[in-house]
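Action item from last week, closing it out:
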Amino acid sequence: MLKTSNILSFSAAATLALTAMPGANAADPIKVGVVTPLSGTYAPIGKQVRWGAELAVKEINAAGGVGGRQFELLFEDEEANPPVAVRKSEKLLQQDKVDLLTGTVNSGSTLAVGQLAERNGRILVTTVSYAPSITGAQCNPNVFRVNANAFMQSNALTAWLVKNAPGKRYFFIGPDYEMGRSTISAFQDDIKRLGGTDVGATFPPLGAKDFTPYVGQIRAARPDVIMTATAGNDTVRLLTQLKEYGILNEKLTLAGAAGAVTQENIGAMGGAGEGFLSAAGYSADIDTPANKKFVAAFKKEFQNDPDLFGADTYGLFYLFKQAIEKAGSTDTDKLRAAMEDASWETPQGTKKIRKGDHQAIVDMVVVKVKGNDFQTVGKVAGAEAVGPDKCDKF
């Protein structure tokens, strides 16, 4: 197990490679600031982000690094709070002089830190945030996303649900902030377009401890399907309380965002997540040699299975490596150009960054919770799920 100190360095100062990139001392590390929730409601997500980064960096550094340089990870707890994320990111940029930023989970944090990254001439890549606006209406030339956004998840999941889930009545519940509302909006739009009926929606505050006030609203709506955009500990509380109040039964279908039920919170639900359906860019049961190798390495290192957040973050560092080597430096303009239209290999398969909006095209899988694991029940090609490029700012 890797140490959990605030700053993790895998530098090998004694290693000087002849392939060192021009303009950079081979002994100087490539510093990556990882601003992610290490406490609070979204801490389980932040833990997977941390593990994915640590494993990729360990592998890359052991294989000689990037052009003779080593990656160095500097972690800060953003608490899934945008003002905190901005403050911690500013410290990493100004004081620690990081070359790159990643880790942001809360979509509001990603949008705010992205503006800060642009002002400081650095690149931010999210491996978690769902809000379509990040690569849409509020796109930013210095912000990239390598995970599937809410539109992609909704597009894949709702198409599967209307064909396979019994009943047409859908109720929606999500946290009251950018990600929650945009994800639920995408679900609602797609369900209506595909012939389902919207029988209600509610938006509890992020970190809600008691979902009792919403139980009556859900019961009165008599849904066939409940779709949620909660995540982390919020989903644990929501589903266990719905189970306690007798809302969950064999006739009701549970579904929602890929981050709602994950390897990090499923065990705490006492079976309340059984049958939960989601569409994601990753599942640990992807049957390829690359994914099997990744899952084995992840389990050996952390004694846990990876989820989509661990896998997407792990894959990001191989994009960083490829782009830095192509650019010959960590210069932001050169790095941005090297990342645009880049294709690279990940545990999920080949990903490609779309130049126009910096959104990765990711193949999607529809997964169903069975016990404490996930079973793939459907697949949707990334090109089919991604939707149109709606960025007009660069």
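Closing note: The domain at 7-148+287-362 is CATH 3.40.50.2300 (Rossmann fold).
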